[in-house]
Amino acid sequence: MEVSVKASLEHIQTFIHPQVILVDDSSREDSFFSTALRSKAVDIGKPVIELPTDATENMMWITRLDSESLAGWCFCALLYLQSLIGFSAWTTTYVDILVQAPSGSSGSLVRLLKSVENADYFGIRRPHLTIELPADIEPSTWRYLENLVWPPLDWSGAPHVSQVSLRHRIPRRTLTEHEASARLAESFYPVRSEGSHVLLLSPQVELSPLYYHYLVYNLLEYRYSAHAKAAKEAPNLIGFSLERPAFYLNDTTPLAPPVVKKPSGIRKNDQPGERTPFLWQAPNSNAALYFGNKWMEFHSFLTARLAKPPSARRKVFSEKHPSWLEFFLELMRNRGYSLLYPNFLVDEDSIVTIHDELYLVPEEYSKKTTTSDSPAPDLDPNETLTKEYDRHDRKAPPNTEHTLLTSNLVSLLPNSGDLPELTNLPLLSYNGISITRELSHEAAIAFANTYRREIGGCKANSEASRREPNSALDLFCHRDEVYDPLKPPQPHHKAPHPQQQPHGEDEIPAEQQGNAKQEASAHLARQEGKPKPVQPRAPQVRQQPAVQQDSSKETQNEFKLQMERQAQQAGRGSGQGQTPIRKDEPRKDKSKISEPKKVEPAKEPQKDDSKKEEPKKDESQQDSPNHNGFHKQGPKKVVEGSKEESTGEKGAGW
């Protein structure tokens, strides 16, 4: 039978080319049929959507989707069946729920988690749940988290994999606005830019059992459908909110949601004045889903933004909202991004509801809350409690609670559940003014140019860098300069001192130019074979150690004695020019003269005034060898105008 089912599905693929296969309540089908269908679907690369039993009542919205949106998303009736249906046939999508629980929000957090557990997920993969706990956890919260099993156990025997991540903060000082914003951005990072998304939930929120139906319906329609991919507004959509705020960003003016002004002509039920979802250039922190690629861009934006000094720009959000909304709004205004908001009426059911009775001010603004310094008044037990006291620490942003939807999602949505296209949705600027797409694009360009100059550190006439995918670094310059609030500001360019100006690679300092000229002249003279030129300047006598001075004087005396002996020997041969040798001076052997003598300190011999001075050799002459073949040693002194006369025969003297 399984072979027959596979063969039939092969013929259907050949002639019809289906994009997706729908199965209504597979538990009612024969086992061989379900097994063969899943196996063959993997071979032909088609997704299988196994609808639950009550699909006709709660999942009528699936009939409004096109085939491309269904084929591009992972629908599996049972979690364990995903291993049987190959992942290569379609792109899987993951949703992570992120909850930041402040201190003292035990009751609100437990209520939110119970609504997440009791929601209907119509058989598909449950979202991953990340809970950031405060430093102080109340016992009731801890008991609930110990017994939390998410996702629920599969009674078919499939192995259970926990999808809960708890993060417990270490006690420390109160976070600043920048630290609180960075903490949120670091709490989640998508695995894939196109397949991972994050759902931010506030502890004040309570979800409807059909909230995941609404989330998946909008995600498939505005993210993966054919007309959403072809729409020009699709790149500017960062996600969608699950609630419609009652007031604008200032929390004082009631929000007037836009309505349909002109029918699109595509929908039969479009009427002027009918309520419709709308796009708003403002983020939401209560209940909103943000696409993975936009979150990556926000992460890069916040990384570069926090490296710059704080700006004096006026804040748009009040301090009743988290500080990261202000930075997200800056990114949206730079890019022209918008968030999709529903348009539910106040007196009807909704996907989420906001409870304000346990509202807490964000931690980064808790110390700025104004409180009365006057002591509390004494209460009379017999007096009727009619006086109202101000509660500054728990003044919540105004909002209206809705009843939660429990069935029939299509009846809640406008136009019988048929979602309008992005091009037909009205657009509001961040301050609530209705604008066109052209004006929004021009305003984004003007704001980005001003932002790059005032916040990004770029020059007025500098050209913007190339914009990279999933990155906002093109809005900033000098990214290597990181702002540190603990260090004093320093100027960007510091002029060097005039005396400390760096020299060029081939430039010679002025104090070394004279020595350089002398070295160059001596080098040229050695190359040409000429004697070293004598400088006309006064000789500079270098200070030598005492040992070297005594040695040089002794060497001069020995040289004089050698010259006298040479002259005496020459006189004996010719009979002229004999010079007697003094008897008081000891005669030295020639062998001792030829041997190198150790340098030892010696006393200077007494000079004889009756003896004539021997002529000194000019420094310009090279060292000449004596008759023993050795050179004269010792320092040379320059004596201008002196010449050495030869005595005796040629070759007998100098």
Question: Mind explaining what this structure looks like?
Answer:
The protein has 654 residues and is α/β, with parallel strands linked by helices. The chain has helices at 2-15, 31-44, 55-58, 67-71, 106-117, 139-146, 177-186, 211-224, 226-230, 292-305, 324-335, 409-412, 437-454, 513-528, 546-574, 590-594, and strands at residues 21-24, 48-51, 94-100, 128-133, 164-168, 196-201, 205-207, 237-241, 278-280, 287-290, 338-341, 352-354, 427-428, 434-435. Among the domains are: 2-87, no CATH class; 93-368 and 392-475, Alpha-Beta Complex (Spore Coat Polysaccharide Biosynthesis Protein SpsA, Chain A). Helices cover 28% and strands 9% of the residues. Strands 5-4-3-6-10-8-11-9-13-14 form a ten-stranded mixed sheet. It has a two-stranded parallel ribbon with strand order 1-2. Strand 3, helix 5 and strand 4 (128-133) form a beta-alpha-beta unit. Helix 7 packs antiparallel against helix 10. The longest helix is centred in the last third of the chain and has 29 residues, at 546-574. The N and C termini lie far apart (127 Å).
